[in-house]
Every structure is written in C-alpha cells, then in structure tokens.
Amino acid sequence: MLSRMEEAKESELGNVTSENEKTLEEVVQALPSDAVNHLVSLGICVRCIFRVFGIEGRVYASPSLSPSVFASAVEQLPPTEDNNNNKHQLCTLCLGILQFTFRDHDGTILRNDDLPLLISDMVKRDGYHSDTFSLEVSIPPIILHNDNSLRSYMKIKYGSQPWFQERCISTKDALKFSLQHPLQNLLECKSTMGSFRIRLTYTASKDADKCLDNAESCKRRKTGECNLDGQKPSSISLENESSDCCKFMLEMPNEPCHFAYSCYRTPFYFGGRYLKYSRNVSQTRWIIDDERMGEASVEEIIGGNILQACQADSFKFHAAGREDIDVRMLGPGRPFLVEVQNARQVPSELSVKDIEKKINTMENKLVRVKNLKLVGSHGWDLMREGEAEKQKQYAALVWISRPLKDEDLQHVSSLKDLKVLQRTPVRVLHRRSPLEREKIIHWMKIETIAESSQYFLLHLCTQAGTYIKEFVHGDLGRTHPSIGSMLGCRAEILQLDVTDIKMECFLT
Ligand SMILES: [Zn+2]
C-alpha cells in the first residue's frame, strides 16, 4: 500500500526532480571526499565514480551529472570541462558510455543527454507495441579491463579504509540504471524481462583494441596478476602492479566508442490444429522448377494471416506430421505451431480469435484452424513430442476390379491389429532410402456406397507412418498383405482423407 502511494507521489512530475536531487545529494554526501577528489582528477565521470563505490539505482538517471555535483562534498574540484563548451572531457574509465558520448554510424562524435529520448523515438518509429521492455547492453572488453585496473588500484590505495568495498557496479548495469527509468516514462511500459528487447551495442575503436592487446600480452609476461580476482602476490609487487595498471588506463586512447542501437522481439508461438478441405493444397509452400504445386499451402494461409496481424518480419510453420497434397485433413485436425519472428505486436486473446475467424471465413475455404492460441516456447517441445504420431484414422474411396461381396465386409472388419510389411513405396523411392517396415492396421470397416458394387469407402485406423495408398493397391507386391491381395482382385485408391490423429502428446 505504502509503495503504491510512493509511486503515485513520484508520478507527479514536480516531485520526481526534488526526490532525485535529494537522493543525489545524500549519495554524494556519503562519499569519502578525498577519494572522490582523486577519482575526479583521474578523469573519471560521475556515474563511474558512483559505480566504483557500489552505488545502485535511479541516482544514475539524474539529469546532467557533471562533476559539479561533488562541489558540496569536495573542497577543491580540479579544473574540469564543466563550463568549457569546446571540448568535453571523456571519462577515462567508461570512454564516454556513461556520459552518453559516442560515435554514431558515420563516425561523428555526439554527446546526447537525451539518450533515452533517442531510443524511445526509434522504438516508436519502428512501430513496436509492448507492455514491457528489457535492455541488452554490449560493452567492449577494454571497459572491463579498465574496471579491473582501477579496482586493483583502489584496493591498494584505499583497501584499509572503512568505506572500501570490493563490489563495483558494472558499466552495463550503470547504463541500465541510467536509462531504465526515463525509458519507462517515455515508452509508458515496464522494464522487465519480456519478449521486447532494446539492444545497445558499444564497440571500441581499433586503436583501443590494439592497446588492449598490448596490455594483455604485457600482463602475461609479468608474474603477478594485475586483476585482484586472481592470486594475491606480495604487497610490494602489488604496489608496482597497481601503479602500472593505473598508468596504463590513463594512457589508453581517449576515444568514444561506436554506438549502435536497435530493437527486436524474441520469437513467440501460435499453436492450434488445422483442417485441410482441398486435394490441391500442400502443407508447405511447394515449388518445383519455379512452378507452384497446388493452388495454395496450409503454411501460407495460416502463417500469412498471422504475419499480417502481428506485423512480423517472418514466420516459420511447423506441423506434427504431414499428409500428401491430395489427402484432406479432417476430423479434429493436425496440430501445428507458427513461430512468429520479430513481431511489432503480440496480439491479445481477442485478436487471436479474430485471426482464427479471418482464416475460417476465407472465401476459398481451403483450410480451417481450430483452437488457435498463443503458446509459450514450451509449445515447441510439445510439438517435437507430438511428432511421434501414434495412430491415424483414414477414410479412403476404393475401387476394386470385381463386385464387392458380403463376405468381404465381414472378412475385412474381422481383422484386428493386422501386421503389414511395407517396402519403401515406388513413388517416394527418389527421396527415401529403401527399407522394409512392419506397420499395424488396427482395424478396418467397409462402408458400401448405394447402387455401386465396385466402389466403397474403407475406414481404417493404422499405426502412424503406414503408407495407406500402397496398403490398398499393393505397390506391385512391395506392400503385403494389401486390400488387393486380401480380396484377390485389383484395388485402386481414388481419394483419401485423414479423419483423426492420435498423438503421443496432445497439443491444443
Ligand atoms: Zn565513466
């Protein structure tokens, strides 16, 4: 309750500044003035000084953090760039990252105290809608090196002081503290781990990289570790090391990093089941020699509608198993997932229903979806498991070369869990290796067609992976037994529908 009241208080703009300034003042007052003075003289920026002392939070977001903030706490400030507009002194530790100074894409050096505004403008321009954002910051290794050098130096110089602590806030975290709160206000959304990411990438100049390489090889040649995270050499050698380190840090090229920023959304998934009513629609887009096979694909119909609704860059369609282009998918439908990449928006539950409705009311009625919904990334695991189809039910329109007899009906329906040997069908030999597999036909039922003695509907339930067309006509003896061999006549399959799929794992 109290925190909500505090939030309400802070949301009044007038209070934000005074609250912040008070906090900033308190923070500054608590710092040891001699050490601060020393760090300022080393050319270290205000935010870096905060992080050296392990300070966290919104104080980093205070506007215009110039060394003058230390004026009250520090007796004598060294001459700084404060009132000098000609040249801004770049921080020797963060190389300007925490001063919002950087090189832009064409190399121009910019200092932009409105970095949050620059970022929020990009997000809005790119058309992203989100309730949350999270910052991904990438910092060049030289900054880490600088931090380590300074930390070693501080430990030697101030290690015995009561205020000294090893903990230093990373440049990455300090940048996040500086940007999170202003961005929350500008974007009107919360900073928390979600699918929408803002990526800030800093890269060091080539000179800085070269310098770092030299320093690293120089360090390797010495025996003591410069970095105090490693072993602890004697205090004398430490003293030497630390002064070397600090000297090195100050000799580094004082050049701002190149800065690039972008945003994206991590993939999310739609799950559901599809029905295919056409014998001229493939499951995925199917092109042979620049020629499209079939009039459309399930992938394009479903994925295309989702892509448009989410304003995404692209999508990937994954289905649990497949059926041939000329086989309809009926009954409860086949489970599928659509992976949506870099969407500008994540649809609400209501808009998901709208997408489903839109697909289902398309004029051509080739494809329908059921139970369309957003599923977490676990949907993908479910799908992989789901690929282990267990049983499938079909309805096949069959022709035989002689009239159907009553005993045929009884014979066929009496067979339970019939074992069938299938050699790889002739029609798929070009893409599948020649193998012999045993499959099980769980049950069969013949449904006669009025006034037609040589045509009938064969309903059958089989183990997943059974080649149904071959089971009917025998594939020149490569499938045995077959409907043809059992009835002692020629059998042809005219049409086939999948009417049910029992999955290992049920997705919907
Ligand atoms: Zn700095």
UniProtKB/TrEMBL annotation:
GO BP, sorted A to Z: tRNA pseudouridine synthesis
Keywords of the record: Isomerase, tRNA processing
EC number: 5.4.99.25
Pus10-like C-terminal domain span: 269-501
GO molecular function terms noted in the UniProt entry: RNA binding; tRNA pseudouridine(55) synthase activity
Coiled coil: none
Pfam families for this protein: Pus10_C, Pus10_N_euk
Domain Pus10 N-terminal eukaryotes: 91-219
Keyword Isomerase attributed: yes
Family: Belongs to the pseudouridine synthase Pus10 family.
Name of the protein: tRNA pseudouridine(55) synthase
Organism: Cicer arietinum (Chickpea)
Lineage: Eukaryota, Viridiplantae, Streptophyta, Embryophyta, Tracheophyta
